[in-house]
TrEMBL record:
InterPro entries according to UniProt: Coprogen_oxidase_aer, Coprogen_oxidase_aer_sf
A Pfam family it matches: Coprogen_oxidas
Catalytic activity field: coproporphyrinogen III + O2 + 2 H(+) = protoporphyrinogen IX + 2 CO2 + 2 H2O
Species for this entry: Tetradesmus obliquus
Protein name: Coproporphyrinogen oxidase
Lineage start: Eukaryota, Viridiplantae, Chlorophyta, core chlorophytes, Chlorophyceae
Length: 364
């Protein structure tokens, strides 16, 4: 997010009535910067260069401390609501950890053995460090031109991540996160929320996607379609030629300097909606009877979940490059099964799910 001298982004947003005006204000943040406002990309690059040449103004651009406080408050609310929803009396175990040399901290919270929640994790990570060459190359390859592929630049990151694995095979796995990444005077937001069911209920899928479309429509009429497609593309397992779940939202590298909406407000709305988007579905399905065969199928599908995380997920790879392994692997399901060459019976509910995973659908 951007702002002129002595102004925060929220102040700037109130003062400006159009995206063009906001971009113009950003360009005036540094008289030495020759900013272009012809396209979102050129505007975004110019703003970052201006911020890099004026560290004091860059610090005012995004209030990282306020976003960190928001994440901490949201985590507390999610923990309280999840314990109540589970209803077993099980509590989240809280593990606060510190990174060496004042480079950040984390709060890993895990509930295991609940009635609804077989394993649930809701984690905070606040990180400051220096980009390794591997991380820098991965990020610059996605269009972040301000990042030196050789590495060595200082960065900071703040994230809330969540995964809920249900004990009931008819209740879908919920995964979500929101995050802020800052480097070279620039700030990017990312996040999303998606479902991974073992059994497909079309009304559940439509309800979940409808919830997120309503959130997106507050900011832009085309935002849901864009971030739904992004989610389908990201959560794909090439080796299996299928998607991990039925999708939801996914977004990354969103910079308010090039967006026609308030990216930080949108990211925070996603965080607030994580549990509400799933709760009614979980409550509806947890009361249904299930068979041992359905439970075994759930364990097989969890194998696919872990395959994606370990082979393809950028966040896991980023974390394993010097991160805290226990906090990264906490997203893994508690029990998993693999069997050789499993092919669902033709016409079965299991086959119906796989067909949708092979070819994502539009739900709303």
């Amino acid at each position: 997010m951007i702002g002129g001298t002595g102004a925060t982004i929220k102040q700037a947003a109130k003062m400006q009535s159009s995206l063009l005006q906001r971009r113009g204000a950003a360009c005036r943040a540094s008289s030495s910067s020759k900013c272009q406002v012809r396209t979102a990309r050129s505007s975004r690059t110019a703003v970052c260069r201006a911020a890099a040449s004026a560290p004091a103004q860059a610090a005012a651009a995004v209030d990282a401390a306020a976003f960190e406080t928001f994440l901490l408050d949201t985590q507390k609310q999610i923990l309280a609501e999840a314990e109540k929803l589970d209803g077993s009396g099980q509590k989240f175990v809280t593990d606060r950890w510190e990174r060496p040399n004042d480079t950040g901290y984390g709060i890993t919270c895990v509930l295991e053995g609940g009635d609804l929640l077989e394993k649930a994790a809701a984690n905070i990570s606040i990180i400051r460090g220096t980009l390794s060459a591997q991380r820098a190359q991965a990020m610059s390859s996605r269009g972040r031109s301000q990042i030196d592929p050789a590495g060595g630049q200082p960065y900071s990151a703040a994230a809330l991540s969540l995964v809920f694995h249900a004990a009931h095979p008819l209740v879908p796995t919920l995964r979500a996160d929101v995050r802020l990444f800052q480097v070279a005077g620039c700030s990017w937001f990312g996040g999303g929320c998606d479902l991974t069911p073992s059994y497909l209920f079309e009304d559940d899928a439509a309800e979940f996607h409808g919830y997120w479309k309503d959130v997106c429509d507050k900011y832009s009429p085309g935002l849901y379609a864009e971030h739904k497609a992004w989610c389908d593309k990201y959560f794909y397992i090439p080796a299996r030629k299928e998607h991990r779940g039925i999708g939801g939202l996914f977004f990354d590298d969103l910079d308010a300097a090039g967006a026609a909406f308030d990216v930080q407000a949108y990211t925070e709305d996603v965080a607030r909606g994580i549990l509400p988007s799933w709760t009614a579905i979980a409550q509806r399905r947890r009361t249904q009877q299930f068979t041992e065969a359905q439970r075994n199928w759930q364990l097989l599908r969890r194998g696919r979940y872990l395959e994606f995380n370990l082979l393809y997920d950028r966040g896991v790879k980023f974390g394993l490059d010097g991160g805290r392994v226990e906090s990264i692997m906490v997203s893994a399901p508690p029990l998993i099964a693999w069997k050789y060459n499993v092919v669902p019976e033709q016409g079965s509910d299991e086959e119906r799910l796989v067909k949708v995973l092979q070819q994502p659908r539009e739900w709303v």
